[in-house]
Amino acid sequence: MAIAHPFLYEKPGTVKQALQLLAQHGAGARVLAGGTDLVGQLVDGLVRPEIVVDLKGVPDLQEIRMEKDVIHIGALATFTDIMESPLIRKKLPVMAEMTEWVASRGVRNRGTMVGNICSAVPCCDSGPILLVYGGKVLVKSARGQRAVPIAQWFTGPRRTVLAPGELVLGVRVPDPGKHGGAFVKMRRYKGEDLAQASVTALLLAGNQWRIAFGSVAPTPIAGKRVEKLLHGKRLTPALVEEAVALTDQETAPITDIRSTREYRAHMLRVMMRRALEAAASRKAGRGPAYGTELI
Amino acid sequence: MSETTPPQEPSAPRRSIRTTRRDFLRGMGLAAGAATMLPSLSAPADEAEATPDAAPATPGLRETGRGPRKIELRINGQTHSLTVEPRTTLLEALREHLQLTGAKNGCDRGACGACSVLLDGEAVQSCLLLAVEAVGKEVTTIEGIAADSRYARLVDAFCAHDAAQCGFCIPGMVVGSAALLNRNPHPSAADIREGLAGHLCRCATHPKIIAAVQAATGTGGPT
Fold first, then answer.
1. Are B220 and B189 in contact (CB under 8 A)?
2. Considering the entire predicted model, what is its pTM?
3. Using DSSP, how many helices (H) and how many strands (E) does chain B show?
4. Assigned fold of B41-50+65-141
5. Is A109 in contact with A146 (CB distance < 8 Å)?
6. Domain residue extents for chain B
């Protein structure tokens, strides 16, 4: 099926030019990075932009770099770039683990993490990862620049705080230091399938935990009750069971084409147990290796 | 549509007496006057001709307007000049403007892998790219891979292992396998499964496809 709706296409060479176009066209503008979400939406007629602004003419936006104690991931960094970045594998291994399970090779070669959080579907895998790592979204407009904590980023399915005229330059993640974690994703088959549910756990120094869920609420969400329960405590089998019991209170799964509510709720408990155990054992330097599927 | 020359015209040199299914259907379609059904956006015949002397596209080039514009695409080592709208996908440009119909339109949403091509050597789904995004890139389609002796062993292995049933997914499978082998010349069966995840075969010949890739790389499998 061809794209029915015609649009303007511009490929600015600088951030300034891109911002001018976005300011000029407001809500009629759509930013194109990898296109793996946007082109599908164009084909389906779900978005009818006046103009598509292709960011790929702007240099340096594909960079992944360390700036003091912050890891910066540019708006054009693809999932493949992130997956293969030695910096990410060393500093943010749970993010690397997540990228390996995003869609398929062809989609990872084009799709970007920033595009993933801007399209903001409830099952976006980058959301939970940035929640546990405490990422911030670097937003620029003609009026200035702001850094939005990821916890305040998502406002609903396909909705974020990004306003017309604003452009995301990248995400910034503070160096978490020594930690262990796990990203557990349930899907129907390997390859191009979205998460039916995901649980992400991160264990930082001082037994501080970060928990996040995907596909089980209108947006990716943090597991505040589990984080509070586990705070400062050493993980024991009894504590794991207490955390697992809290999972129902943290999430609100629905029945849809990919799964029933009941199946999601059941599997969330299984995934929570395995995520906690794997995070603790990885922090202690034992297996399972990052990238090992836990369900 | 470009192929308006009847095959029996005496002055038209034929490379081969073999007629493909697509040539045959095209001939039938023209005879029935079905050419009028083709999209009006289709490129005229002369646009499909190679123009190797054209200047390379400038990165960051500003392109304006909703309507058709002339672009140049590097495909299988040749420069093609064609006229597309911004909304034309790379898959449409290949299939409908350049008659490179090896890449298939399966799901049109990046889920099936049938439209895969190499973009600067990396596998991508051409249904998820606008044609204008491929300006300045090197596109390799299944036609390019089939003509490249470096991939002969891979292509032969697909045939030898009878990896195709209906064959619709096979161009994408071969492109995906070529990309995989470029990255990892000696993949394990697990690497092949992972590398070809996202390429769906509805006839379910995945085991034969995996065996073919293994055989082509000497990493196992029969023959």
1. yes
2. 0.88
3. 7, 5
4. Ubiquitin-like (UB roll) (3.10.20)
5. no
6. 41-50+65-141, 148-217
Query: Both tokens of residue A234?
Result: 């050493």
Q: Is A81 helix (H, G, I), strand (E, B) or coil?
A: helix
Q: Which residues of A fall within a CB distance of 8 Å from B123? A: 105-106, 109
Q: How many CB pairs under 8 A join A and B?
A: 120
CATH number for region A180-283: 3.30.390.50
- A2 contacts B109? CB cut-off 8 A: no
**Residue range B148-217, CATH number:** 1.10.150.120
Q: What is the pLDDT of residues B67-92, one digit of tens each?
A: 899 999 999 999 999 999 999 999 99
Q: What is the pLDDT of residue A257?
A: 87
Q: Give the CATH number of domain A64-174.
A: 3.30.465.10
What is the complex's ipTM, to 2 decimals? Answer: 0.93
d(CA B95, CA B101): 5
Domain boundaries, given as residue ranges, for chain A: 8-57, 64-174, 180-283
Amino acid at A22: L
Please tell me the CATH code under which domain A8-57 is placed: 3.30.43.10
B126 touches chain A (CB under 8 A): no
DSSP string, B85-132: -TT-BHHHIIIIIS----S--SSSSSSS-TTEEEETTEEEEGGGSBGG
Q: Which residues fall within 8 angstroms of residue A288, CB to CB, at 6 or more apart?
A: A278, A281, A282, A294
B87 and chain A in contact, CB less than 8 A = yes
Chain A residues with CB under 8 Å of a chain B CB are 1-3, 5-13, 32, 35-36, 39-40, 42-44, 52, 54, 56-58, 80, 103-107, 109-110, 190-192
Q: How many CA atoms lie within 13 A of A267 on its CB side?
A: 23
Residue B139's nearest CA partner among B127, B155, B123 is B123
- Does the bond joining A288 to the residue before it have cis omega, within 30 degrees of 0? yes
* Model pLDDT for residues A23-35, shown as the tens digit of each residue: 999 999 999 999 9
User: Are A139 and A162 spatial neighbours (Cβ–Cβ below 8 Å)?
Assistant: yes
The backbone region for B33, taken as left when phi is positive above 0, alpha when psi lies in -120 to 50, beta otherwise, is left
A197 touches A214 (CB < 8 A): yes
- Is B190 an 8 Å CB contact of chain A? no
Token pair, residue A67, equals 């700036």
CA distances (Å), origin B53, targets A46, B3, B80 = 40, 24, 11
Q: Specify the pLDDT at position B219.
A: 66
Tracing tokens 């091509």 back to the chain, one arrives at B117
> Which of B60, B129, B195 minimises the CB distance to A11?
B60
User: In whole angstroms, how large is the CA radius of gyration of chain B?
Assistant: 19
Rounded to 5 degrees, what are φ and ψ at A22?
A: -70, -35
Locate A17 and state its tokens: 């030019």
